[in-house]
Write the structure tokens for this entry.
Amino acid sequence: MGQLSRFWRESEHRYRLLGTRCENCGRVYFPPREVCPTCHRESIGKMKDLELSGEGVIESFTVVHEAPPRFSRQKPYVLALIKMEEGPMITGQIVDCDPSEVEIGKHVHAVFRRMGEDGDTGVIVYGYKFALD
Amino acid sequence: MSGIVTYGSYIPRYRIKPDEIARVWGENPEHIKNGIYILSKSVPAPDEDVATISVEAARNALKRKKIDPKEIGAIYVGSESHPYAVKPTATIVGSAIGVDFSLFAADYEFACKAGTAGMQNVKAMVDAGMIKYGLAIGADTSQGAPGDALEYSASAGGTAFVIGKDDTIAEINSTLSVASDTPDFWRREGQPYPSHGERFTGEPAYFRHVVTAAKMMMERMETQPKDYDYVVFHQPNGKFPTRAAKMLGFEEKQYKDGLLTPYIGNTYSGSMMTGLSSILDVSKPGDHILAVSFGSGAGSDAFDITVTDRIEEMDRNRAPTIKKMLENVRWVDYAIYAKYKKKIIVGDGIE
Ligand SMILES: [Zn+2]
């Protein structure tokens, strides 16, 4: 049940790539932060919600062959570090491609996908993954 | 008056050919292709379902026109393959696009016409002044039993329409429906695959409802087939809509742009709506469209639509057009298809 409430609490930022922007220095954070790690006290009350565009560039990636059971129908799959247009770095799966097509510097966009499910009877968890442009 | 303010579709990238399905089940592929006129069908990725397809279609609609999601007062999602038996797809879509807490929402089911029933519902709410914008989505990830004739056609995809009064790109001049209790196709609760009453699928179900609804609409609007630039019907295969069009007196140039089933298969609740989306991709101000859906069980929803001048102001390429989604494909064989569609069951601990 603890896990269920965590999924629910985080669902808005996971569904919409909802981060925060520090109005003091302009830096954007994802996942959202209450306080800017650069501006500290000066950012208090100045952290505003910002929905990321979903556009980004692959900074680094790895091909996962030894996948957890929930990825058995998707392996091997690509896990990448993506530099988002607004600045934050996000880790995400690259879907709908052959691992050989993935390269550092390629442009990607966020897509809404199933992240996993709690067996046949539990909740389905949704969130962002990425696809090559 | 009210109509379509923006629109968006989503078709999964994977495709399978009937030749590949026929190879596994020992059927003659030419016989299948000629019989139902389906040359390929879309296959959802293992992490796609009606909720993800609905969200992508809705986001594509919002890419074409920036409207504040908080002004969308209603969401209705029509499907026969909602991911949950109990828990709405509509609220997942609402959360993913960032709508307000104050929201009319529900999932609809009426075989392949649940999405167009949603369009009628939100149009009525807009006309009644209950909401500013309403979002109606038709989407499916339909299943055909392995080896069943439906396996060649049952595919995945969906389309979203935002309906409102202001800034419409296409006015919905009128809508009407017909319905009757017909046992042409059904799926009982808890069953993974549908059943069909073979002798009911053609004449008493599809043709009776589609043709009657189309004729009733033309009578009401005092129009004739030649008055329409485009016509689009529900497309369970590539043959039925063409035959319905010819029965009514329409020509190929009127129905070809909305006919997608030969390339993507039958997207069920998404079928007619995605055909209409494909027409909106290419239509010009003043174009007159007749659109008729069909849902087994059975009924049809008809729409008389006129494209407005505002379609020229919309940058339709801000979201992928149907043409683009037809080009950007990845082919799979039957084994990969069976794995993706969970026709291969694995043991505990493996998945
Ligand atoms: Zn700062």
Helices of chain A lie at 2-16. The pocket of zinc ion is lined by residues A 22, 24-25, 27, 36, 38-39, 43 (CB under 6 Å). Residues 2-16 of chain A form the longest helix (15 residues). Chain A touches chain B at residues 11-12, 15-16, 51, 69-70, 72-74, 95-97, 111-115, 124, 126, 129 (CB under 8 Å).
